[in-house]
Amino acid sequence: MYLADRTNRLGTETAFEVLARAKALEAQGKSIIHLEIGEPDFDTPRHIIEAAHKALDEGWTHYGPASGDLELKEAIVEEMKSTRSVDIGVENVVVTPGAKPIMFYGILSCIEEGDEVIYPNPGFPIYESMINFIGAKAVPLTLREEKDFSFDVEELKSLINDKTRMIIINSPQNPTGGILSLEDLEQIASLVADRDIIVMTDEVYSRMVYEGQHHSILSLDGMKEKTILIEGFSKTYAMTGWRLGYGVMPKNVADMVSKFMVNSNSCTASFTQRAGIQALRGPQDDSENMIAKFKERKSVIVDGLNSLPGISCRTPKGAFYVFPNIKETGLTSEEAENKFLNDAGVACLKGTSFGANGEGYVRFSYANSKENIREALDRIERVLTG
Ligand SMILES: Cc1ncc(COP(=O)(O)O)c(C=O)c1O
C-alpha cells in the first residue's frame, strides 16, 4: 500500500529493534544480558497496583475527560508546588498515555513547518523524529563529554536565530546521564527571555539524581509562560507498561494538546489515572529504594567500564544510563553494539541511536542486577581482549 511522503521523515527508537534481535538470539538458546532497554527492572509498587484493582472494582472503566482525571491533575498541581516550587492550576495540566505524547502534541501544537527547533544531540531520538516529521528544521545542540555532557552556552547562542521557535532540554539526560545545572538553566532562560521561543523540558528522570539536585527551568522567573514540562510515571514508579505521563504548559497550549487527545486517544485509561493519584500521594519508599539501588549499580558499572581496555566512562549524575567513550577500542558505535551483542551476549545501544554526535559511544542501561552487570562486564572484557 502507498505510504504518505511525510512518513519518510519519521524516525524511531532503536532500543526496540535491538531488543528484538536480542530476543531472537535468546530463542536460539544464547544467553543475553539486557542492558539496552530504558526501563526499571523493578515491579510497580504494590500499593499502586492495588489502587488500580480498586479503581477497576469501583467502575473506573469508562471514558474520562480528554485532559485527564481532575483529581490526578490536582495531585500534579501539588507535585509541581512541592518539587518545582511553582504555582500552576489544573488548566495547565494534560495527562497522556505516557510522557511521549506530550512531545508529539506539544510540537504539533506550537511549531510550524520551516521553524527551527534546537534539541540535544546525543539525545532521546523522538525529539529529532518529531521535529523532522512536522517539517521543521532540527538543529542539534552538541552535548560535550568534556563538559560532563552539558552544552556550551556560546554554541547555543550561535544556533538561535529569527526562525528558532523551541529549545528542547532533558535533564537528567538520556542517554548520557548528565544533568543541567541551575546556571545552565538560568542561561537558557535569559536567552529566551526577550524572544518568542518556547522551552520544552523533559524531566521524566527528575527523581533519579545521584549528585547535586534536580533543577527545573519551570521554577525560574518568567518561565511558566514559556515552558512545556514533560513528566511521567514510567521511570519513577516503574510503570512503563501502564502508559501514564503528563505535561504542564500555558493554558492555550494545554487546550490544544487536549484537543489532540480528543482526536487521537480520547483520554488516558481511567483506572490507570486513579493509580497515578496513589503513586503521587502515597508512600514514596519503594521508588526511593529503587533509586538507591540504581545508585549502587551505577558505581559497579562505571568502575567496571573504566577498567576495560579502550573504554572510558564518566560518572553520570542522574537517570539510569552510562554513555562510555569507546573510541580507543577502534570500533565504531555500530560495530561495538553488534560485537557486544553477538560475541559477548550483552545488549546495548550504539551511541548513534541518539543522533550523529553519539558516534564513538555506546549506551548501557544499568536497570539490571549487580550480578548481571558484573557478568556483562566480564563478557565484554573477554571479547575486547580475546
Ligand atoms: C528522555 C525520555 N523522555 C521520555 C520518555 C518516554 O517516557 P514514557 O514511557 O512516559 O512515554 C523516555 C523513555 O525512555 C525518555 O528516556
Describe this structure in words.
The protein has helices spanning 15-27, 46-57, 70-84, 100-110, 125-133, 153-159, 182-192, 251-263, 270-281, 285-306, 333-342, 370-385; strands spanning 33-34, 93-96, 116-121, 137-142, 164-170, 198-202, 227-232, 245-248, 321-322, 346-347, 349-350, 362-365. Strand 5 (164-170), helix 7 (182-192) and strand 6 (198-202) form a beta-alpha-beta unit. Helix 10 runs parallel beside helix 12. It is built from 12 helices and 12 strands. The chain has 2 domains: 5-43 and 285-385, Aspartate Aminotransferase, domain 1, CATH 3.90.1150.10; 50-281, Aspartate Aminotransferase, domain 2, CATH 3.40.640.10. It is α/β, with parallel strands linked by helices. The mean pLDDT is 97. The termini are far apart. Helices cover 39% and strands 13% of the residues. Bound molecules: pyridoxal-5'-phosphate. Pyridoxal-5'-phosphate is lined by residues 38, 98-100, 124, 170, 174, 202, 204, 232, 234, 240, 245.
